[in-house]
């Protein structure tokens, strides 16, 4: 095993994918948005099938 100097250790970069907080938060927000949209569409379909729709007047 080779020993590295402090200068080399400071400049060492590992991996090629970095996932930081804002990216993870954005992904979670998109997933929550899709889930809520699914609930709304499912509720609309259920109400149409059960004929429990508020009249539009």
Order of helices and strands: HH
> Could you give a short account of the major beta sheet?
none
- Helix content class: 55-70%
- The rough form would be described as rod-shaped
Question: pLDDT under 50 segments (min length 5)?
Answer: none
DSSP strand tally: 0
- Helix/strand structural class: mainly alpha
Q: Taking all residues together, what is the mean pLDDT?
A: 84
| Annotation field: number of helices | 2
Radius of gyration over C-alpha positions, nearest whole angstrom: 25 Å
Straight-line distance between termini: 79 Å
Give the amount of beta strand, in percent: under 5%
Can you describe this structure?
With 57 residues, this protein is an all-alpha fold. Helix content is 61%, strand content 0%. It has helices at residues 6-11, 21-49.
Secondary-structure blueprint:
Elements: H1 6-11, H2 21-49
In short:
The chain is mainly α and 57 residues long.
List keywords for this structure.
single chain, 57 residues, mainly alpha, 2 helices, 61% helix
């Amino acid at each position: 095993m080779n020993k590295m100097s402090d200068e080399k250790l400071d400049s060492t970069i590992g991996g090629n994918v970095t996932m930081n907080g804002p990216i993870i938060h954005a992904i979670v927000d998109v997933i929550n948005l899709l889930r809520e949209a699914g609930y709304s569409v499912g509720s609309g379909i259920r109400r149409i099938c059960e004929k429990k729709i508020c009249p539009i007047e």
